[in-house]
Amino acid sequence: ERMVEIRQQNCNPMTMKVTYYKKPVFIHQGHMQWLWDVDGRRYLDLFAGVATVSVGHCHPKVTAAAEKQLRRLWHTTNIYVHPPLHEYCEKLASYFPDPLKVIYLTNSGSEANDLAMLMARLHTGNFDIITFRGSYHGGSPQTMGLTSNAAYKYPIANGLGCTNTMCPDVFRGPWGGSHCRDSPVQTIRECSCAQGHCMANDQYIGQLKETFDTSVPSRIAAFFAEPIQGVGGAVQYPKTYLKEAYKLVRERGGLCIADEVQTGFGRTGSHFWGFQGHDVIPDMVTMAKGIGNGYPMGAVVTTPEIAASFAKGVHFNTFGGNPVACAIASSVLDTIKEDGAQQISLNVGTYLMTELAKLRDKYEIIGDVRGKGLQIGVEMVKDKASRHPLPPEAMSEIFEDMKDMGVLIGKGGVYGQVMALAPCRSVLFSWRVVATLQATTSQVRFHT
Ligand code: PMP
Fold first, then answer.
1. What CATH class has 70-337?
2. Per-residue pLDDT tens for 296-352?
3. Ligand 1 interacting residues, C-beta cut-off 6 A
4. What is its EC number (predicted)?
5. CATH superfamily entry for domain 2-60+340-447
6. In this predicted model, what pLDDT tens digit does every residue of 355-371 receive, in sequence order?
7. Ligand 1 centroid from CA 177, angstroms
8. Is 6 exposed, middle or buried (0-12, 13-18, 19+ CB in 10 A)?
């Protein structure tokens, strides 16, 4: 009865927020890239629970690892060490270059970013933090301050979702398009680079310098950047931007933090971590989502030196590093390797981007196709010349049509104008995706 009652409402029963769809979609089963609703309809899942189910829904190997651990031990406190914790931390550390070798386990991405903020402030003795326009770093009161996307903030006392003292400086950096990318497709916003010299890069670096001079002179604790903005709509930076930005931040005593909550675990295809695509080594890396293939977990990886500043206090987390989470996460790392998930990201991602670029060239309402590996954004616009975002009603039509055709996708971008594709890295039927997009875009064009 409760189910029937909820299904009649136009909302997500968990958060009571309106979903993308006219009616809630009730998912009750998943297998690899497929989801089934309570009526038995099958969907191709191209969003993977917001880029989270990294190797496939209920992947048999990961499920077996969870089952095994559930029969042995569910929980202890972090007063004790248990084999899954030990084994996992050693394994995860081996995926990082020196000196990133100290690991703290959390339950979510927001918690990981909260912890990273705290550690950066303790280590540097500074307070201010810089993030990007369009960024998303979490929904806890502290990380809501980091998140610059106003859609995820609440108008509460003294600011939007944060008090002024907690609110980091939001830096107006790269947004709305890609510039010098190493992706196989061109954007409509052509990069105005002369050979070997990127004008967009100069502009953004200039803005960063200005932010330092005007807002945070010599008091910076940290610079947070997603290697590719996820919720912001698969936004990429000019090629050398992060490297130059890291240098400026470090010159001013700040720490550089890579938020790999979406980009980590091989999602970008060419590298295991997004930061590796920028030729930088961060001082801290935060992660969640793909770490547990959908099981709640997060982590912060940092250096022994930064960890030492943090060790002055007592940090306690009841569930962080839970035995079941560690057993699952360990199996996820093995499965990524065995299934070639990073290679799948690269191959399928390159294919999808290439095919989507053909649609972009054909249709006036596809303004940009961008991203890397299987973190792809398709920006929908009124027309290519103005590049104004496609209105929310038209975006809703796309989501509705695609759902009716059996394909679930995500939404990104400051105006919700970006179709986000971030599927699990299991065997995908790319042709079906492209065909569906083709059909959907022509329908939407007709409507508008
Ligand atoms: N950072 C990024 C880049 C994210 O995309 C998200 C979630 N969308 C978070 C942090 C917050 O993670 P969580 O929802 O697990 O708290």
1. alpha beta
2. 999 999 999 999 999 888 888 999 999 999 999 999 999 999 999 999 999 999 989
3. 50, 108-110, 113, 136-138, 226, 230-231, 259, 261-262, 288
4. 2.6.1.18, 2.6.1.40, 2.6.1.44
5. Aspartate Aminotransferase, domain 1 (3.90.1150.10)
6. 999 999 899 999 999 99
7. 21
8. middle
